[in-house]
Amino acid sequence: MPKRRLRKAAFLAVAAVLALVVPGPAAEARTGSPAGRGGPAGPAGPDIPPLTDDQGRTLTLRGWNLADKDHRGDEALADITERSLRDMAAQGFNFARLAVFWDDLEPRPGHYSERYLDKIERVLDWAAKHRIHVVIDAHQDVYGPAFGSHRGIPAWATRTDGLPYRTHPDDWFAEYFEPAVQAAFQHLYEDEDLRRAQARMWQVLAARVAHHPAVYGYDLINEPMGRLLEGESIPDAARRIEATQLTPMYQRMADAIRRVDRRHRLFVEPTPAAGEGVPTGLGRIRDPAVVYAPHFYNAAMEAGRDYDPASGWLPAYEAAVVAYPRAQRVPVVIGEWGPLNSSLPNMARFYEDALTSMSRYASGWASWQWCYGGGYCAVDERGRFRPNKPRTAEPYAGAVAGTVRGASYEAGSSVYRLTYVPARGGVTELSLPPAARGWRVTVNGPVRADTARVRPGERALVRLRPTVRAGGPAEAGVTVTPG
Questions:
Q1: pTM of this structure
Q2: Most buried by CB count within 10 Å: which residue of 20, 61, 212, 322?
Q3: Cis peptide bond prior to 140, omega within 30° of 0
């Protein structure tokens, strides 16, 4: 079971700042993603490009995080089994963000654990078997194991300047603001030997998995933080840290990875302040395959409270989060999202609003987290979806070979529609989750589907292939309906 992610003490300050933000218009229709819920030319119109695969197809990634924070050393990744990948795929998901820990990979300076690399590769083998794209996430919580039970950056790479640290059992995220933790981040960003060690770690990891068919990309560091200056607000500190420390760090790691892997996508995160609608200060990363990967959390819901549709948080978040990808012309994938308690009265509304919002600007998302139990877990111990989480499993086009003209999903009627101009010889893939009534697939225009009917309770991957038509490009239409 994952560690509770309570952030109330640290980020209510950011939430207060957001009270001054005028929210944008609320969403009314679930449209926008290139192959999920619609909109031509990309998730948020022509300004944000979509993800693509090696065949040039437009991708939509839908899935979950996989993380085992409780086991380390010889027992590392023990909680992640083939069942996790198989069960995710059985519900129609095609994406996993896999948390790995530097402290397990390099327990001593310059000594890399072959056993840990083998374990990572075993998870990737399961993912490939079940047709799941994986982004490998260099995860850290409160820097790493030098600060109690946390995971991430090794103790040998932790420098505190002798400053104090104390635990916050009821609000662990507040530990990021302890002086020793803030000093550790500053040294990671500024000390040349730690810079080299971090880049070398990524080179070792990327060199090992660069040719694995399941790998789609690398998330360079999870939820990076830094040192606040005296009198500095959290939003101001976040933008300064992102501009002056994270941007050069990402460039160093990108350059290091490109010496061993020139193919895979590089996912870069802002600080967690972005989750409360604070525009990022990240600069440009000079690499052709960058993906912006913010997280999507709300301080009140992280503290266990219900969703408040009138708070203005969600439209403020969306308005802020699209600025960077529009300016830099990079795709967006939400690396983490999801409430602590999905059973509260307004959570059905939250899922609908959140999915609608993300569809307008993101090519994909990974919810937190695929595990078997309570809290954030997707499913219970018997593998049944927990309250409202079935809403994440719906029809979508995981890969579109051609130019998307529009797509939409109507949650009330469970009807999915896709319109696109097929690419000659390309194969488009629709992912249909299990449904009580099954699915019917109808097409018109120059394509044919390999499946017209999906039986109740079965998941299907429907392939659409273009047919020969004279007269140049022509639109194809696909409609998926229950029954």
A1: 0.93
A2: 61
A3: no
